[in-house]
Design brief:
This protein is of the alpha+beta class. The protein has helices spanning 16-27, 42-46, 68-75, 78-87, 107-115, 165-170, 228-239, 267-275, 336-356; strands at 8-12, 31-36, 55-56, 92-94, 99-102, 121-123, 129-132, 135-138, 142-145, 147-150, 174-180, 184-186, 197-206, 209-220, 224-226, 246-251, 283-290, 298-303, 313-314, 317-322. The mean pLDDT is 95. The chain binds flavin-adenine dinucleotide (FAD).
Length: 358
Amino acid sequence: MMEGDTVKVAIIGAGASGLMLSRILTEMNISYTLFERKKAGRKLLASGNGRCNISNINIDSNSYLNNSFAYNLVKNNQKELFDLFKKLNIYTYSDNEGRLYPISESSQSVYNILTEKINNIEYITINEINKINNKYYLNKIYGPFDYVAITIGSNASINEEYSYNLLDNIGVNYNEFRPSLVGFKLKEKTKEISGVRQKCLIKLLDNNKIIYSEKGEIIFKNDGISGICIMNASAFYNHYPNKKNILLSIDFLNGIKYNSLSSVLKPDLLNYINKYNLDPTNLIFNIIDTYDIKNAQVGYGGISLNEVNNDLSFKKDNNIYFGGEVLDCDGVCGGYNLMLAFCSAIVISRSIYEISNK
Ligand SMILES: Cc1cc2nc3c(=O)[nH]c(=O)nc-3n(C[C@H](O)[C@H](O)[C@H](O)COP(=O)(O)OP(=O)(O)OC[C@H]3O[C@@H](n4cnc5c(N)ncnc54)[C@H](O)[C@@H]3O)c2cc1C
């Protein structure tokens, strides 16, 4: 850029990633327009049941299901993110599993902070980007822009048509989104215990071999099962190559011997176990599949990581960036997906700032 030129950025998608990017660009005094097809911050507002589990102080390779790109992206920017929270007056606390929440325990308060300085938002779906004389024009109307950040998320948890015309239009390779962090549909009927919640140890078995285990609370549904440990197991399951014949084993007693189970198990669950003569330390269910993407908290799939540089710019056109869930990265429960969306915003803003100040 020449001295005196004002950089203009188009941010497509006002979710966690796009909102954080807008807020950082505001702090950097970089001009932008934010484009949103429907409702800004919808998933951010729904996160953590409205309590907003915004990040996690712990991270290891399992946090992003062995996706080293996602792990490095977050690991290298986690400290900067936590400093940024402080700078933005997003004060947090962490629970004993490292999950970070705003002290308000309100996603609305985080949304309010991210949006308080946004004054340039257009409610429209962007389907097309054209490049003319090194400047970008969106839907042939909006522009010129020097940079475009695409933070359009996935169709997880969305009960309507969701189009990826924009990605087709710019010619980037992406994989279809599939559900991650979702419940399992089970072959056995669970209607009798629908709504029952119980703490337990779950295991996924492939030919009697334990391929996944986690402790946590499960919730039975009419035809399946959910809960945080189940959602994490579903993410593992969906990345697992051979899904045939995977069984779910549930241990409600966790190694402890009780003379009576009356005060240990919820009454409906105890009746169910007694009625069908089941083993409370090894209740076996056949997994049919996970529930579909509209029931999932996160989608896995999206823009192939070999299409992007480490600064999240598009290899075929370095002035276009991708951030958040639209990338082929997904994390387990515990704040990892918002942390990825926010860290993407940090990386994109840093790259734009450095290039435009050269
Ligand atoms: C119920 C629920 C609870 C969750 N809880 C947590 C939690 O506690 N912790 C956690 O870490 N994660 C949680 N997640 C996941 C997390 O919210 C998402 O991973 C994160 O919001 C993704 O951010 P994003 O900015 O990449 O995408 P999104 O938040 O999905 O934002 C994308 C935005 O782009 C817009 N858009 C799409 N296409 C276009 C277009 N062509 N033109 C213009 N705009 C477009 C969309 O309308 C949307 O507003 C939860 C998700 C759900 C659904």
